Amino acid sequence: MTELFAGRYAFVDLLGSGGMGTVWRVWDAKRREYAAAKLLSRSDSTSLLRFIRESSWRVEHDHVVTPTGWAAEDDRVLFTMPLVRGGTVADLVRDFGALPLGLVLDLLDQLLAALTAVHAAGLVHRDVKPSNLLLEPPGSDRPRLRLSDFGIAAHVDDPRLTRIGEAVGTRGYAAPEVLRGADPDPAQDVYAVGVLAAELVTGRRPGAGASGLGDHPLAALVAAMTEDDPGRRPTAGGARRTVAGLTAAPGPERGGDPVEVFDHVPELPDGWAPDGPVPLDDAGTPVPVPAPASEARPEPEPEPAAVQAATRPAPTRPAATRILQEPGPDTEPLPPAMRPVPRRRGTGWLPLAVVLLLVGAVSLIGGAVLLLR
């Protein structure tokens, strides 16, 4: 097996790369399972702060991606999370365009359930958009949606350090008051869901509010969620109740053309099996592992559905959120393929100390830290 990063993680294959670092499939030798890992250089303080911040927000919910751990070695820091194999809602819209009403209602129900839990924890996500909504292939069930990327999330009670005129989010999904520099508020996430809902039923991002929805069953809800006045928008829980009513109500055919959520994670490379690394003999040839004599060896099953991460399925990770600006070019070189840099004696404590200090800083200044860039 390849060397272990921080004595625990083996790099299996590269899943994506971008301005915020690289995303790998790794083998966790302690948990004996595959995970997704974001690998950063500790010299990239902006990205490092973002992902430390993301790891500090922990909302335990079926439809929220929760980071599982981190490790540091030499000048690199690694953050792990579950893999989610089905790509993103952005992939779904790109592949199929306008989605059937039944699927749209299903996805909205799951997203609003996640946001209800996030808001109950006192958090505002601030970057709800299709590329941050991960999907797990459904098998015989519905696709499972999971909200990811809490890198610019804020607590409603965080101290306000934003400069006047500075806004955080993604243009097109940010509420009007965000562009005016308003404090974080759950109503801003609701606005983004309204824009997203219109995009799902039309196959394109609307210019404003419910424009172009006509008499679509979701038109009234989208109009309410995208009200200019945040005080007139429903809560995430209230919007979810409306979605439930639309789901139960009789109406036109909801099936539409079939939409399939594909597995976007590639097959395991040579030397790796569903249950971990394949043993090699002295000549480097894989050694077959016989099944126990007392029982037949079952056919390997597909990896569980909870397997992809805050990762993007393409060879290039979609643009990470900036302060309403386009992301810059990649600045971090890819790590050596399949093998992390060996640990250098006498320096292993440095990244650990840096990370611990940054975690402390995040806990002190909360939502303001990502705005100072």
TrEMBL record:
Domain of life: Bacteria
Keywords for this protein: ATP-binding, Kinase, Membrane, Nucleotide-binding, Serine/threonine-protein kinase, Transferase, Transmembrane, Transmembrane helix
Membrane-traversing stretches: 349-372
SMART domains linked: S_TKc
InterPro entries hit by this protein: Kinase-like_dom_sf, Prot_kinase_dom, Protein_kinase_ATP_BS, Ser/Thr_kinase_AS
Compositional bias segments (type: Low complexity): 233-249, 304-322
PROSITE patterns cross-referenced by the UniProt entry: PROTEIN_KINASE_ATP (PS00107), PROTEIN_KINASE_DOM (PS50011), PROTEIN_KINASE_ST (PS00108)
Pfam family for this entry, one: Pkinase
One GO MF term attached to the UniProt entry: protein serine/threonine kinase activity
Residue ranges constituting the Protein kinase domain according to the UniProt record: 9-329
CDD domains named in the record: STKc_PknB_like
Positions with a binding annotation for ATP: K38
Stored PANTHER family: INHIBITOR OF NUCLEAR FACTOR KAPPA-B KINASE EPSILON SUBUNIT HOMOLOG 1-RELATED, SERINE/THREONINE-PROTEIN KINASE SBK1
Protein name per Swiss-Prot or TrEMBL: Serine/threonine protein kinase
Taxonomic lineage from the root: Bacteria, Bacillati, Actinomycetota, Actinomycetes, Micrococcales
